[in-house]
Amino acid sequence: MFTLASIAVMLAGAFQCVPVDADMPASVAPASSGYRSSSASLPPVTSPTASKGQPIWHQSLEDGWNASRKTGLPMVIFITSENCVYCQAMEKRTWCNDSIAGQLVGRFIPIHLKKGRNDKVLSRIQLKMYPTTLLATPEGKVVQHRDGFQPPENVLSFLNQRIGGRTPSR
């Protein structure tokens, strides 16, 4: 069960899905649409996994892992740092893409960890760079990882990787 305090913590660092091509490096600016309107943001929390077709990004590994164990769904862990232009570009271009959001809902527990907010848990993870994206089982085993900016097409392929001998399905 969620309390107002836990909802505030979950939404405190949630990124908003807005088209901001001008803020992205030219090398990662989108060539096509697939973005929500500038007034869109992450939906209010009504369940541990999703609401109205939008993924709910957990803001702590503990909360996300608990939801993963409870539902049996694998975790997608997106790790960022402050002032990382490629992290911001991936938040806006990749994770806010309608196809990616649709793949996350009901198939994965998305977790957004951020340097500065999640330092204790991040101190136990050896990172080569930001952003880093991990795919992990409900048991906590990391089965896939990607370093650096990943466009939507790469993340779609990544999300369809086999996990523990099976492909996540709806």
TrEMBL record:
Q: Where is this region: Disordered?
A: 34-55
Q: Say if the entry is tagged with keyword Signal.
A: yes
Keyword line: Redox-active center, Signal
- The reply on keyword Metal-binding is no
What is the protein name for this chain? Answer: Thioredoxin domain-containing protein
Task: List the signal peptide residues.
Answer: 1-22
**Residue ranges with Low complexity bias:** 34-44
Which residues are in the Thioredoxin domain?
36-164
Residue ranges annotated as transmembrane are none
The record ties this protein, via Pfam families, to: Thioredoxin_7 (PF13899)
